[in-house]
Amino acid sequence: MRDLVRDAGGDEPAKKPATPPPPRERIFRLADALGARADSGVAAPVSALPALPAANAEAVFGAVQVVMAQLRDAVKTGEPLPTLELDAVVGQVILALEQGSDLFWLANEPPPPDAEYIAAHLASVGVLALRIAADLGYDRQRLADLGVAAFLFDVGLYQLPERLLAKAEPLTPDEQALYSTHPRLSADALQRFNLEREGLIEAVLQHHEREQGQGYPQGLPGSAIHPHAKIIGLADTYTRLTAPRPPRARLQPHEAIREIVRSKQHSFPSALIKALLSEVSVFPPRTMVKLNTGEVGRVVAVNRNHPLRPKVEVIADSKGDRLHTSKLIDLSEAPFLYITGPLAAGS
Prior knowledge:
The structure is a single chain. By secondary structure, this protein is of the alpha+beta class. The chain folds into 2 domains: 2-29 and 284-342, no CATH class; 57-280, Hypothetical protein af1432, CATH 1.10.3210.10. It is built from 14 helices and 5 strands. It has a 5-stranded antiparallel β-sheet with strand order 4-3-2-1-5, with no helix packed on it. A hairpin with a 4-residue loop joins strand 1 (288-291) and strand 2.
């Protein structure tokens, strides 16, 4: 179990004290979320960067959403893309992610029901892709190139019928064939705008290609897929699982991670999954969890080096009665307390 937790990106279990604690409920481990072994391999950190002005996460994400709406309108009307605005907002996102996790968690929130789905999805995927790439050691220039692709990769969907995109039932073979044209539609649209970014067209065209050649539109093997496309494909997959187009049911983060890890031999390189695991956390902020004491709490912050031991605001006692005054516990500093499992939304 020590190897499994370490290889999956988690912290090792705390050493047993001389005097064992009282009998405990079974601890929730990374294996419960993954359902499979995640390969080891530590990604190279981003090089040290000079201090820069602080970036407000809400303002940056608001700017991202504005630019996504402008991109949508430009693609639909054939007007020039707002490239200067896109470059600027990519730079703001990179800066905000360097300075903290607020923007990352904000982008991982499901969009409001009235949000235009494609624009909201592009915004979330773009932020997550940049976070994964930073974990892999991308410098700022590579991040900038990736960011442009990650905020544009699905623009071809605007050329498909809305009834097809909104369909909740499985697509028919003909519908799937039509849907599968969107990477090519996206690439063709961007080629018309003559954007000069390293790997842009390859990343957009190949974001649905997979390691064993089972993707589309070309069925490329992993060795032929652009690295940007792999990162965008993973971010796209995770976001579609945790924030799908309504009325499809969303998965909780730990459920989405499990699905991705189970398919890793066929879909994504282990190094990318490792980077995703280190970023998204099994228990993201706002996740409701149950402790081994029976108490119920809400995750308020992630301990990146100890993904199973976040900071938790305890809001209900072991009987389920809400506390008059909540209490904050850093599980990384409380060896006898741990999470036994996440609770369903609304619990």
